[in-house]
Amino acid sequence: MEGRQIELTFNFSTDFCSGRGSAALVPTPRRTDLRFTMSPIDSAVSAAPPSSAALVAARDTSVACDLAPFSVLEISGPDAAAFLQGQLSNDVMALAEGDAQFTSYNSPKGRMLANFVLWRTNAETFRALLPTDVAAGVQKRLAMFVLRSKVSLADVSQKIARFGLGGPTATDALRSAFGTVPAVFTIVGADGAMLLGLPGPRFVVMAPLEAEAAIGMRLARDAVRAPFAVWQWLTIRAGVPVVTAPMQDRLIAQAANWDVLGGVSFRKGCYTGQEIIARMQYLGRQKERLFAFHADTAAVAAGARVFGHGFGDQACGTVVNAAPAPEGGSDILAVMQVEAVDAGDLHLEAPHGPALVRWPLPYIVPPAEPPRGRTGAA
Question: Among 125, 117, 175, 119, which Cα is nearest to 150's?
C-alpha cells in the first residue's frame, strides 16, 4: 500500500522557554483528505498473530481491530488544562472541546517517555490514548507534579470498549456503521459511541463496555476482524511512531519525526524537556530522523539495532516499531542517522544481518539545516 504524500510547510523564528517571540512550527497539510489514529482495547483476537487474510484486508479494504494494548488515561479538574500545558509537548490550551492532537511526555533531558493522542471532552476533562506498557508509569509520574493543582488522574480503560478501524475503505466502513466520519484530529458522537479520526485512514471507536459486542458486530459488517498486530502495521504505514517500554527515554521528539507530525508546539511556553527540544530545533543539526523499511524476516523487536555501510560494528539506528507485512516479512519504523540512510546497505542486528529496503513515508520530512549559531560568530 503506497501512502499518499503530504506537503508540510513550516514557519520558524525564535521562541525558547520565555514564551516570547513567534517560533511557529505549524504543520499545514496541503491535503486535508487524510485520516489519523493512535490506539486502544482487548480480546483474544488482540494477542493472536495476524493471518495473511487480515493483513491483505488492511492493505486493500478495511479491518476492525481490538486495541487491548492501549489504555485510556483521564486528566480532569479545574486546573487540568494549565497542568498539562506545563507537562506535554503540544499546545494543550489551544485544544478545543472535541478536538485531538498528537503530543508527548518527555524526561527533563528531552527524551520521549510516551507519545500519544490527547483529546478534550469538555472544559475540564482530557483523555489520552497510550500504550498500556507505559500508561501506569506515565500516570504515576504525572501525579508527582500535581501538587496543589486541582487535577485528578485516572485510568478509565476498564469502562471503555475500544476498536481500531483502518485500511483504504475504512472511511466507507465507518460511515456505513455510524452514518458519520470524523475529520482528522476530531472526535464526534454517534449512536452512543465516540469516533476519533487520525492518519491512515484510521479511526478509533470508543463506547461503554456494555456496548462492546454490539459495536464489534456493527463494524464487522464491512470490515474484517483483525488482531492488534494488524493495527500496528497500519500505524507503521501511516509513518506514526509509538513509544513503547523498550524505547522509553531514548528518543528526542525530532528524531522520531514528532515535530513533522504536529506533536510539538514551538510557540508555547515551558514544559518538561522543552529546553533540549528547542535547542535541537534552533541551534542543532538534526542528524537522526525516522525512516520506514521492509525486511524479509518475521520477528523484529523494538530496540533492535541497525547497522550500515561505513559504520562497521557500530550501530547507526534503532527499530522503534515493527509488524508483519501483507507480503511477508516485516515493515519497520527506525530512527536512523541520516548519513547512514544516504549511504544505504542497511542491515538488522548485525553488519551482515537481514537487509533493510527503504520505502517512502506518507509525508515529507524537511531536510536537515545547518546549525543556526550566534550571528557574527567567527
Answer: 125
Note the pLDDT tens digit of each residue in 211-259: 999 999 999 999 999 999 999 999 999 999 999 999 999 999 999 999 9
Q: CA dist 296 to 32, 208, 242, 335, 342, Å?
A: 34, 41, 22, 19, 21
| Cα distances (Å, whole numbers) of residue 77 to 86, 102, 156, 167 | 15, 21, 15, 37
* CATH number (domain holding residue 139): 3.30.1360.120
| Full domain range(s) for residue 346 | 287-360
In a domain, 77, yes or no: yes
For the chain, report the end-to-end CA distance as a whole number of angstroms.
50
One-letter identity of residue 41: I
| Strand, helix or coil for residue 337 | strand
Beta strand ranges found along 77-159 (DSSP E): 100-106, 112-122, 125-131, 152-155
Question: How many other CB atoms are there within 10 angstroms of residue 48's CB atom?
Answer: 15
Read off the pLDDT of residues 7-22 as tens digits, 9 standing for 90 and up: 333 232 333 333 333 3
pTM of the predicted model as reported, rounded to 2 decimal places: 0.85
Query: Sign of dihedral through CA atoms 94, 95, 99, 102?
Result: positive
Contact residues for 94 (Cβ-Cβ < 8 A; gap 6+): 265
Residue 333 phi/psi, 5° resolution? -110, 130
In a domain, 79, yes or no: yes
Average pLDDT score over the chain: 87
Average pLDDT estimate for 325-339: 96
Reduce the DSSP state of residue 124 to 3 states and report it. coil
**Could you give the CA distance from residue 203 to residue 199 in angstroms, rounded to a whole number?**
8
Number of domains in the chain: 2
